[in-house]
Design a protein that fits this description.
dioxygenase, arachidonate 5-lipoxygenase activity, elongated, EC 1.13.11.34, five-stranded antiparallel β-sheet, LipOase_C_sf, hydrolase
């Protein structure tokens, strides 16, 4: 009788093993085997991290093995099991790999196909077509769309973490890591004693050092020492944790009535302000999205305030960006003066602090939450609904999008909301407004840079976010083009891939709410456009998230440089600001500690982090794809070396887009 050797690999994450009964059936072209209990006497099968082998003898020839069925039946208590893969050695000595990388919950069953990626047109056998269809039908019942807030991208239908399908829940250690990171922040930063001191102001700027940890040669320490300087202020718009707002000013806006006479002392080329604009030396950051947003009113004992500044910046003769004018609200007037570097020291400093606070709010809610987490969740849900596990694009994305659901992320953002001026509803208003500007082209990194007039490396030589981002974007695009070329031999194959087209349509209809102005495609018709689309998804979920997430402690831990709230309204006149007024405007001791703990925890990598280009799970088994992955890794390694060489001896190294610091997944 034919005999097969079955090798079963259990995951190594917490609670991956099981004591339940595991049964296996083989489905071949000539027949189906009986169920076989996988069990060895006096042996603890399916332990965490174990690789177990079993001999399975069948009554008759099965032909070519098409499917492997795994059933889990309760032994004592319900016991989830994470199955990595099954390898089958046939009677002929051939090895067939059946990747799984999924949880089997309750008394569940899972049916696996071999690891070869297949488009729907490749499946001609009825049983394989049926398996493909049933998998998507099951997934579409599990992954349902829901409106979290009006105007938001739709999210997954789940009210809490336990409602999520098991495969996209945080691993236990992921959740524990974040909680421990936050707890460690409270303990290691020695801020527990200040946590409940709300309404208690700091004495002066130096007093903030009581909750600030100095670590030699770090960016955060340099920020603490130089945050008041105009050069440091301007540099952050290029290479801080929100380097996506600055744009070249093509025309001075009427709502900012600044004149040459006002900024003459800041201009270095003996030109008028208008001439500097024409030569491309003036830049602008406009926080108009914050205009009219409701400030946090959840604490009746503390009033909190927001502003909507306009900041004009200048490229000096050293090619450095410095601020030259700040107006703290959108409508000009006598009570909304334009603050200048020539003003009194504390007038100018407080104006810059207001800009930094506004930048923090846009960064957390729009740049970070909306444009990486919520967008990636849309891609993730649509992927599960329309791409079966055997689809090459599912295999390409599985590790990047499997935990993108935003329900689990609420803990990350609710923690700092207590300390944020946009908490209590303002952050919702911000996302609703920002959805108007969320376009497909704005997620295409090179086009987004060009749209802001920031693409010239000669004119703007110190924009490392741009330089490194373009390198990573091109590496990803080259890789995706290779993968597309392996599975799609013509543009017509792209058009005829109905699963792919349904995925793209779902993103447009539910993620972007069917808005034509979003520019998101309803369908994809060429291999080139498919490669671009895949690049957008991967870059957003990995590189873009890394660029705006992991620098938060560096740039936001020194509270005066990134205040999460302001406790007094913006000044309406010049010459009246004092150091005492600034300190009383900045966050109190309690809110400062909440903020510091949050940015520390969010900035930490998880243990066993997987970085860009790493594919430890063998979703792909074909040699051409494995070779493409190897070339991708080699390209990324070259970029790592280039960035490391540039950063040598820099007082402010930029490393957030170094591929060895870009996690594969957005969901942390």
């Amino acid at each position: 009788m034919p005999s097969y050797t079955v090798t079963v690999a259990t995951g190594s994450q917490w609670f991956a093993g099981t004591d339940d009964y595991i049964y296996l059936s083989l489905v071949g072209s000539a027949g189906c085997s009986e169920k076989h209990l996988l069990d060895k006497p006096f042996y603890n099968d399916f332990e965490r991290g174990a690789v177990d082998s079993y001999d399975v003898t069948v009554d008759e020839e099965l032909g070519d093995i098409q499917l492997v069925k795994i059933e889990k039946r309760k032994y004592w208590l319900h016991d989830d099991w994470y199955l990595k893969y099954i390898t089958l050695k046939t009677p002929c000595g051939d090895y067939i790999e059946f990747p799984c990388y999924r949880w089997i919950t309750g008394e569940g069953e899972i049916v696996l196909r071999d690891g070869r990626a297949k488009l729907a047109c490749d499946d001609q056998i009825h049983i394989l077509k049926q398996h493909r269809r049933k998998e998507l039908e099951t997934r579409q019942k599990q992954y349902r769309w829901m409106e979290w807030n009006p105007g938001f991208p739709l999210s997954i239908d789940a009210k809490c973490h336990k409602d999520l399908p098991r495969d996209i829940q945080f691993d236990s250690e992921k959740g524990v890591d974040f909680v421990l990171n936050y707890s460690k922040a409270m303990e290691n930063l020695f801020i527990n004693r200040f946590m409940h001191m709300f309404q208690s102001s700091w004495s002066d700027f130096a007093d903030f050092e009581k909750i600030f940890v100095k670590i030699s040669n770090t960016i955060s320490e340099r920020v603490m020492n130089h945050w008041q300087e105009d050069l440091m202020f301007g540099y952050q718009f290029l290479n801080g944790c929100n380097p996506v707002l600055i744009q070249r000013c093509k025309k001075l806006p009427e709502k900012l009535p600044v004149t040459t006479e006002m900024v003459e002392c800041s201009l270095e080329r003996q030109l008028t302000l208008e001439q500097e604009v024409e030569q491309g030396n003036i830049f602008i950051v406009d926080f108009d999205l914050l205009d009219g947003i409701d400030a946090n009113k959840t604490d009746p004992c503390t009033l909190q305030f927001l502003a909507a500044p306009i900041c004009l910046l200048y490229k000096n003769l050293a090619n450095k960006i410095v601020p030259i004018a700040i107006q703290l609200n959108q409508v000009p007037g006598d009570e909304n003066p334009i603050f200048l570097p020539s003003d009194a020291k504390y007038d100018w400093l407080l104006a810059k602090i207001w800009v930094r606070s506004s930048d923090f709010h846009i960064h957390q809610t729009i740049t970070h939450l909306l444009r990486t987490h919520l967008v990636s969740e849309v891609f993730g849900i649509a992927m599960y609904r329309h791409l079966p596990a055997v689809h090459p694009i599912f295999k390409l994305w599985a590790r990047r999008l499997e935990r993108a659901a935003q329900v689990q992320l609420m803990v990350l953002f609710l923690l700092p909301l207590k300390a944020n001026a946009t908490g209590g509803g303002g952050h919702v208003q911000m996302v609703q407004r920002a959805m108007q500007d969320l376009t497909y082209i704005s997620l295409c990194f090179p086009e987004a840079i060009k749209a802001r007039g920031m693409d010239s490396t000669e004119d703007i030589p110190y924009y490392f976010y741009r330089d490194d981002g373009l390198l990573v974007w091109e590496a990803i695009k080259t890789f995706t083009a290779e993968v597309v070329g392996i599975y799609y031999k013509s543009d017509q194959m792209v058009v005829e891939d109905q699963e792919l087209q349904d995925f793209v349509k779902d993103v447009y209809v539910y993620g972007m709410r069917g808005k034509k102005t979003s520019g998101f495609p309803k369908s994809i018709k060429t291999r080139e456009k498919l490669s671009e689309y895949l690049t957008v998804v991967i870059f957003t979920a990995s590189a873009q998230h890394a660029a705006v997430n992991f620098g938060q402690y560096d740039w936001c831990s020194w509270i005066p440089n990134a205040p999460p709230t302001m406790r007094a309204p913006p000044p309406t006149a010049k010459g009246v600001v004092t150091i005492e007024q600034i300190v009383d405007t900045l966050p109190d001791r309690g809110r400062s500690c909440w903020h510091l703990g949050a940015v520390w925890a969010l900035s930490q990598f998880q243990e066993n982090e997987l970085f860009l280009g790493m594919y430890p799970e063998e979703h792909f088994i074909e040699k051409p794809v494995k070779e493409a992955i190897a070339r991708f890794r080699k390209n990324l390694d070259t970029i790592v070396s280039m960035i490391a060489e540039r950063n040598k001896n820099k007082k402010l190294p930029y490393y957030y887009l170094s591929p060895d610091r870009i996690p594969n997944s957005v969901a942390i």
